[in-house]
Amino acid sequence: FTGLFILGMLGLYVAIRKRLEIGLPFFTLFLICTVGLILYMNFADGINYNVRTGDAYLEVRDRDYFFTPAFVFFGICIGTGVSALIALIKERLARTRPALQKTLVYASTVLVLLPALSLANNYKTSDRSNNFLPYSYARNMLDTCEENAILFTTGDNETFPLWCLQEVYRYRRDIRVVNLSLLGTDWYVYQMKNQYDVPISLEDDQILWNEYEVQPGVTVSRPDKMFHDKPRKRLAYLQASMYNGSVLRVQDMIVDEVVIENRWRCPIYFSSPPYSQSPLKLRERCVRTGILYKLERESVEGLVDVEKSFDLFMNVYDFTGLNDPTVYRDHSATRDFAITYGGGFGPLINELLRTSQDNRARELLNKFIDVYPEFWQPYFILADMDYRAGDSTAGLAALQLFRDNIEILHRNFKGNLFYLQDWGIAKVEIGRRINDQALIDEGLGDMWRAFDANANSTILFKKLATVLTELGRYDELQRAGRQIAQYKRNLSDPYLQQLLNIRSTDYFPEE
After folding, report:
1. Angle (CA) 403 451 426, round 5°
2. Rounded CA gap, 144 and 473, in Å?
3. How far is CA 207 from each of CA 27, 261, 268, 275, 296, rounded to the nearest angstrom?
4. For residues 308 and 81, what is the distance between their CA atoms, to the nearest angstrom?
5. Which of 122-136, 278-292, 359-373, 422-436 is predicted with the least confidence, judged by mean pLDDT?
6. Which H/E stretch holds residue 176?
7. pLDDT tens-digit series, residues 484-499
């Protein structure tokens, strides 16, 4: 890549020298879109740390798309540099080696293939052909909902695909999608009430915020009028505030408001459990239904709708692409699919086994292995069932199948640490079953390599900690705990506090 940089600089130099009226404005634009944007955006790069928490200041995701103009401009510079280099070769050889001039000029045209380097390095991670994962993911969420439902979603990754299906593909537009992250803003609450007919009884001047000076030089944003906070039997402004010793968010108050004003006219679903402090006890009445939670009048045993969930997983959901090992998944996709599909699968399979419906459980396990082969849980449950039934051959075959499937994904996407760790988990479990210590150590080595590469990942830590606990390797468990504890935000985890015999207040002093 040093050669590409030199070609780009050569192209800039030639552009400025030959046509100053073109080259200088181009150079100015290039500086604005590179150094200028870096200074203006001031992205956190992980070098500086919060003194109180010990966490690095780091962007939540890559922000390279802000520099697209810079990539375009420098690509033009490289092209100009290639042209200048070919012209230079032609001029020099015309004076010194005229016989070789034509041959070398023709040979130098191979430089026009330089974009192939970028293509080769980025094609796999940028290729979206046959990637129907977001489409199927969103469709499955919508298909879980009954007609005219209200669906509360948590964040961008699950909400944007839903909006795409509704607005672009015109699918299931009867469902009102309400994003909880945005619900903390006044304009979004106003929009949900007045444009999407979400049942909210607040008047507009009880929703929209204005600035008020509470004391000289100090202003706050709040609505003009208070509203009746029915669950808490009080008058309040629609703004975040302290209530009973904890922060009460705007979105939490609006969720309660929607539930009350809906009066059970429309089904209500959540993509994740609602907040636990609701006076309406929402979490206790949210029943797992497929990959969502449905709010019911009364709680259901086990908080799982077994029949509906089984039908959704077996007959309704579309898993296109999940069993294709060539479809690229980054860490976020791997994590989100495991949380969503695994979060619905786990409670359902537990209920089937708890109620002695082993045949239906096996049917569901085999279905998941077929459509979602990277998910570890079905293999391990199936293997455990087989071993308990005395069929160690079938049990071992299930574990070996998982190892083989995850190895393919690991080799295809080496940067995905979840696949490396799961590959190690498979080796450890197989080694444990056949009493092969070398294989166990090899698997643990893979798990440690994944964790060491990102010691701030709670998912990687908890999988490693589970395996180390099962193997009785408590010294290594302490080492892993100390490693993730370097990122102080993780110290709020009760498991880590117990493991290291610490209190969160040791690191987060009470005000």
Report:
1. 15
2. 43
3. 48, 16, 22, 21, 28
4. 63
5. 122-136
6. strand 176-179
7. 988 777 887 888 988 9
